[in-house]
Amino acid sequence: MFLSQNLPREINSPGEPGVLYHMGIGFTSNWAPEAGRLILRELRDQSAERNRALIARVNAYLDPVAVDYDHDVLPLTPGGNATERHIVTAYIAVANREISDPAAFWATKFGMERAAVERLMADSPAFQNTLRSKLMKRGGPGYVQPDHTSFPSVEKLNALAVACGALPCAAWLDGTTAGEEAMEELLTLLVRKGWWR
Question: Bridge-partner residues for 22, per DSSP?
Fold first, then answer.
């Protein structure tokens, strides 16, 4: 969620000032009132647009390995809402299917020794985390510094939670970032953005 320039500090999304992991609790069913369904549709569309742009950047870097969002990624999701982890899984599957020597391919793309990549590939979670870090996070070819158009606003998530009878909640990293060290200021800002009604 994008918090805004009101708090231009790193909060709980490392290296991304003004971006806040945020959550709602107490959603009691899959049902949502019309206002909630409209927000959910908007959030899903924004997420899909962000994912498609990420995939286009990573596909250009990984050529000849290319993932198709509709064909390779969406079938991996339980409800059609893909995360970076679904995208990572798709890249691994496509590379395994299309490349004769995936370890050599990833070693070249990661700038790592083949033996190190082979060890990672033997530990699926570690390999997935490495792929995500190397390709999609800061410094990787798929990364773009977020701004107010990248993610939904905190107000939007708060409105969704309230419309569905749930509670918006602050997510916490570890208290060591500049944003979390200024907890009173952060909580005051969240309340102004519709955290409690």
Answer: 170
Whether residue 121 is contained in a domain is answered as: yes
Tally of domains in the chain: 1
pTM reported for the whole predicted model: 0.84
**How many beta carbons lie within 10 A of that of residue 13, not counting itself?**
20
Query: Residue 176 falls within a domain, yes or no?
Result: no
**DSSP letter at 78?**
S
Amino acid 37 reads R
Distance CA 123, CA 117 (A): 10
Give residue-wise pLDDT tens across range 85-108: 999 999 999 999 999 999 999 999
The closest alpha carbon to 168, from 149, 152, 147, belongs to: 152
Query: Which of 103, 111, 96, 115 shows the shortest CA–CA distance to 141?
Result: 111
